[in-house]
């Protein structure tokens, strides 16, 4: 509704005494016939009931009387037309208020009612009052509902029924009665006043836009009903919903003044549909950079296809979803899609392509790929049905030319895989409550700077965050909490993964990850992992523990600093190389582990915190720094903190370079690891050749490749006790494991030396 807006506009028709040239016997438009000098009409100046009156002889089946001056129809305005009539002689007709609706230059608006209720004249001389209300909305008492199309009308009355009767008509009255529907002091605008039907079928888009245009800052209200909006609609003022809105997916509904989830829920009723429409509006308009969920909980019964919701495929402007909760409810929408199919793989032709894929139409984009020679977290990035091919998120290290694969599509609360590219998107302060029924977020296949901050990922069924392409470039995970659904499950039996990265430059900061199967799987390079706590232990005494952080390429160019790494290990591998044997690529290295806390509780003594796992032969370590860390084992010692997993291939210890394993502290670790290591050796009896064993101190079962220094501690003496001042010749790579050092003196001597040994060449 609207306030009376006709102040200053003359509505009242001129009296009949002023002349009959403005009173038409037609529809009132220009050129229609008038009653001036008409044989069946005359002005009576002194009627006893009316004063001046029009006396009219009914000569037609419907005798029209229309005032020829346009009466404006303003949005939200309601007019009442009133006439007093009495029969004088002849046949007794019926009378009704009538009008002609127009716009522009006397263009008729068809399809709307133009007459009010009829009232019969039953006796002569009896004054009968007839009236009708015309207005835009179907409100109580409105006889002629004109909607928002007409801009003016020609009003008067009709005489219907038998002809031949004479009637007298008092001057017509037209008055604004908008105040009868809404007092002026209430600052609201009602969409019904602008022609909205609320029947769920009629397109009410124009009525909503008209109400917004006329609001002048006042609140719009949407009364009870279902309002179909078939077009894009933008509301610039505040709006309040009693009724509901429906709209096609490809049309936008933008609430500029109260752009928040609560308003969209009021509008659309269903929480998920409301979120989709609000997200669509967020991406389609520049007025808001964020969608505030207002702390609301959204119950979801299946994945939300974010690209379908937005009706977009590419978006690279910063946008934020913040402050709310997604609460997963049971539903068939979470059922996994699992397909087994055969395919051919030729890494020399294309290392990320499977060809001649059977059952291809049933394999979904975003599905995880499993099979012989397939590394961790390899996904279907795209598929080409006509070519029969699949593009993978990463190469396969050891797949056969033709073999069977299993494709498993997890279901994600927020699924961005339908976007072609999406960048600069942030999810902030949002709680994902998945209760073991769903996974969290599937990133777009391409994009950069996707940020997850202050987010809680609680009990995902399989995955917290998944990248099936390169939408993880510059991924940021800040101050988040990830809690597994597999906490009572023994560590080796867990299948969940916190998140994975395929591209470069991820920043994982100040987050906590609790008892996943694997916390993170990282491809690419340039990652910064700072200030996090991840732990994967279980309640099994002396049980095997699993990898918490897995690198899938040899040289990740990454720092891991200031983290608490608990009951799991860091694994360096090259499982994404299609030709994993060393050729001319970087080998293992480019990793700095600095200032971290490594902790193990009730672990088997062979467990280690750092593991290098080559997937091909000929690899070595080049550029690895492990400095300033604290290693601790509780309830039982560990043998050492690092090892090589040579189940597939060994490392080539003859080629290690630039390994810094120093300034660490070891608590309840039987064998410390240091490189370069300086040890004190004592030879108790005179011998020309001393064989010294620094091997246990060197990392990864390495060789004693170089001897930077030998220094005597006190006197070196011969068998007679005489001092010997010769320098010995130091020969590394001694012994069956190449990890000992032989000192050869000029004669048999005894004494004590400080020996510095490296397992690498520092150049």
Automatic annotation (TrEMBL):
It comes from Palleronia pelagia. The keyword NAD does not apply. Transmembrane segments: none annotated. GO terms for molecular function: lyase activity. SUPFAM superfamilies: Pectin lyase-like. Residues 189-243 form the Rhamnogalacturonase A/B/Epimerase-like pectate lyase domain. This is Pectate lyase superfamily protein. Keywords: Lyase.
């Amino acid at each position: 509704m609207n306030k009376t807006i006709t102040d200053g506009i003359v509505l009242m028709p001129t009296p009949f005494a002023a002349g009959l040239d403005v009173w038409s016997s037609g529809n009132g438009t220009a050129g229609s016939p008038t009653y001036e000098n008409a044989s069946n009409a005359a002005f009576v100046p002194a009627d006893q009931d009316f004063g001046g009156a029009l006396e009219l002889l009914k000569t037609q089946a419907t005798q029209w009387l229309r005032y020829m001056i346009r009466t404006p129809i303003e949005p939200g305005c309601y007019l009442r037309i009133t006439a007093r009539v009495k029969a004088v002689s002849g046949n007794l007709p019926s009378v009704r208020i009538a009008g002609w609706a127009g716009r522009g230059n006397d263009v008729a608006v068809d399809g709307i009612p133009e007459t009010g209720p009829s009232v019969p004249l039953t006796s002569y001389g009896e004054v009968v009052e007839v009236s009708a209300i015309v207005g835009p909305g179907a409100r109580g008492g409105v006889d002629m509902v004109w909607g928002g199309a007409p801009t003016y009308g020609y009003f008067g009355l009709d005489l219907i029924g038998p002809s031949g009767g004479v009637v007298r008509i008092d001057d017509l009255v037209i008055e604004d009665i908008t105040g009868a529907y809404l007092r002026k002091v209430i600052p609201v605008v009602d969409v019904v006043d602008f022609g909205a039907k609320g029947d769920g079928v009629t397109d009410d888009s124009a009525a909503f836009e008209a109400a917004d245009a006329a609001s002048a800052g006042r609140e719009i209200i949407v009364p009870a009903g279902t309002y179909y909006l078939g077009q894009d609609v933008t509301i610039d003022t505040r709006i309040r919903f009693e009724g509901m809105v429906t709209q096609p997916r490809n049309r936008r509904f933008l609430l500029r003044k109260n752009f928040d989830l609560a308003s969209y829920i009021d509008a659309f009723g269903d929480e998920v549909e409301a979120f989709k429409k609000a997200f669509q509006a967020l991406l389609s308009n520049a007025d808001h950079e964020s969608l505030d969920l207002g702390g609301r909980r959204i119950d979801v019964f299946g994945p939300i296809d974010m690209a379908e919701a937005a009706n977009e495929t590419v978006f690279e402007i910063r946008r934020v979803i913040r402050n709310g909760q997604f609460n997963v409810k049971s539903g068939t929408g979470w059922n996994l899609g699992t397909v087994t199919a055969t395919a051919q793989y030729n890494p020399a032709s294309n290392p990320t392509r499977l060809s001649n894929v059977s059952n291809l139409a049933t394999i979904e984009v975003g599905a995880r790929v499993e099979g012989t020679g397939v590394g961790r977290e390899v996904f279907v990035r795209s598929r080409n049905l006509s070519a029969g091919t699949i593009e993978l998120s990463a190469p396969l290290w050891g797949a056969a030319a033709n073999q069977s694969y299993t494709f498993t599509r997890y279901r994600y609360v927020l699924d961005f895989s339908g976007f072609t590219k999406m960048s600069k998107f942030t999810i902030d302060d949002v709680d994902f409550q998945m209760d073991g029924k769903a996974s969290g977020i599937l990133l777009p296949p391409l994009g950069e700077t996707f940020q997850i901050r202050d987010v809680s990922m609680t009990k995902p069924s399989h995955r917290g965050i998944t990248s099936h392409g390169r939408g993880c470039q510059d991924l940021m995970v800040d101050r988040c909490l990830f809690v597994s659904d597999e906490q009572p499950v023994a560590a080796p039996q867990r299948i969940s993964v916190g998140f994975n990265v395929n591209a470069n430059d991820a920043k994982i900061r100040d987050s906590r990850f609790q008892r996943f199967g694997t916390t993170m799987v990282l491809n690419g390079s340039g990652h910064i992992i700072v200030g996090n706590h991840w732990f994967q232990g279980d309640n099994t005494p002396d049980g095997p523990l699993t990898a918490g952080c897995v690198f899938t390429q040899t040289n990740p160019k990454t720092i891991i600093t200031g983290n608490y790494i608990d009951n799991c290990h860091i694994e360096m591998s090259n499982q994404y190389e299609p030709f994993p044997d060393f050729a001319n690529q970087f080998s293992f290295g480019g990793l700095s582990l600095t200032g971290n806390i490594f902790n193990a509780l009730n672990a088997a003594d062979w467990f280690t915190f750092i593991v290098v796992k080559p997937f091909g032969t000929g690899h070595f370590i080049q550029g690895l720094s492990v400095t300033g860390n604290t290693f601790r084992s509780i309830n039982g010692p560990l043998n050492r903190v690092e090892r090589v997993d040579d189940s597939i291939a060994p490392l080539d210890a003859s080629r290690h370079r630039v390994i810094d394993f120093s300034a660490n502290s070891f608590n309840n670790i039987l064998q410390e690891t240091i490189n370069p290591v300086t040890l004190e050796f004592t030879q108790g009896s005179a011998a020309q050749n001393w064989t010294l064993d620094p091997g246990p101190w060197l990392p990864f079962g390495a060789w004693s490749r170089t001897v930077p220094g030998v220094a005597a501690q006190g006197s070196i003496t011969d068998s007679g006790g005489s001092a010997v001042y010769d320098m010995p010749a130091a020969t590394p790579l001694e012994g069956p494991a190449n990890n000992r050092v032989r000192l050869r003196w000029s004669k048999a001597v005894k004494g004590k030396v400080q020996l510095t040994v490296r397992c690498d060449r520092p150049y």
